[in-house]
Amino acid sequence: MCRFSKAAKISDNLNLNIQIQIKPQLLSPGIMYGAYLVFKFCNRRKVSTRPLYVNLKYKMAGETLNAYFAKWRPGGEWLMVELFRFWNTNETVDCDILLQSFSQYYCGNWGIFVEGLEFNAIASDKMYMNMQLEEHKENNKLSDENNVQRLMKPELDYQEIFKRSEYNIQNTPKEELCHLLFNGFLIDKGEKIFFLSKANQKKCHMLRAKSVICDASNVKFYRIKPEAQSRCIFEDAAEILYYHEFRIKCDVDTRMLSSDTSYACFLVFKLSEKYRGLKFPVKARDLLPYIKQRTNIISFTAPSTVNLNNIKWIPEQREDGWMEVRVWETISDRHNEESVPMDLKLISFEGNMSGLIISGIEFRPM
Q1: Can you tell me the distance from the alpha carbon of 256 to that of 225, in angstroms, rounded to the nearest whole number?
Q2: Containing domain of residue 290, as a range?
Q3: What is the CATH number of the domain that holds 165?
Q4: 1 falls within a domain
Q5: Domain boundary residue among 99, 122, 145?
Q6: CA 189, CA 166: separation in Å to the nearest integer?
Q7: Are residues 273 and 61 in contact, defined by beta-carbon separation less than 8 angstroms?
Q8: Record's superkingdom (predicted)?
Q9: How deeply is 193 buried, as exposed, middle or buried, from its count of CB atoms within 10 A (0-12, 13-18, 19+)?
Q10: How far, in Å, CA of 92 to CA of 26, rounded?
Q11: What's residue 310's pLDDT?
Q12: pLDDT (tens digit, 9 = 90+) per residue, 328-363?
């Protein structure tokens, strides 16, 4: 139900051409606020607890922006999409926004009703959480001397894993062994990279792209020019050609996982100079039938602030020069099973993807 006596009706979703001038008033000072467009589609929509993909395109301060998701207001019917954030200080905030269009594929073209603009206080818990996470990462980094001293643990059956590599563990000095274990080495004829976590010495490993991408008809494989790296990497990669989805499928060897440990799977990637369609969010859909949370939203590029809360996993820079984004999670608690199945489809919300260069997928403790 509209809170005002009237709402504005816009008949064309694809050509909104709405100019908004914002001068916020009656707001608490020293608080971060979000500015939300409150609207609903003229055709009735099924109310959901999940955000609705709308891809609102608009211009602000001469820059073209996209707000990808709208959330339902309590009570349903009306939607809210965040346009920008600001700190409310003693200075007057003046902002001109030109609303342009919604996604035709997801929103159709039946028109919208606009109730108005709403200003809500934004909690800054996520910012503090990210700061604590970075501090936690720094505190968990162990020195090489500590690694050498703690290397010989009976529960770390890395001796068996070394037999799957080209190295002879009997003739390898302990310092070199430490370097290999914490920086990675190739096993299984170059199909995998095994290493230990520097934070907790738990098992980690990486599978090359060629062995996990299910359908290679829209993929180009090529060798990578070798460079000096602090970590072991594969010498080949896969580039996704012009297509809207791709599939990752494999059986994860439980011998490569530490028992009773929650693992995250990271897609290790780069973007080519001429990448396309990768600024949009991507659905990471688990195809296994017994998974409760079937779909998570990820991004291959850094999302804007207004889109951050609706994207579960965002990319981060790695030490080896590649990027990574979490795409899947599992728990290594199946003591009697030799492998854990993984079947994941990554689907662009809008348009085709191209220029995504994939090195492989990496499994690390959460």
Answers
A1: 28
A2: 127-365
A3: 2.60.120.260
A4: no
A5: 122
A6: 9
A7: no
A8: Eukaryota
A9: buried
A10: 12
A11: 93
A12: 998 766 556 889 899 999 999 999 999 999 999 999
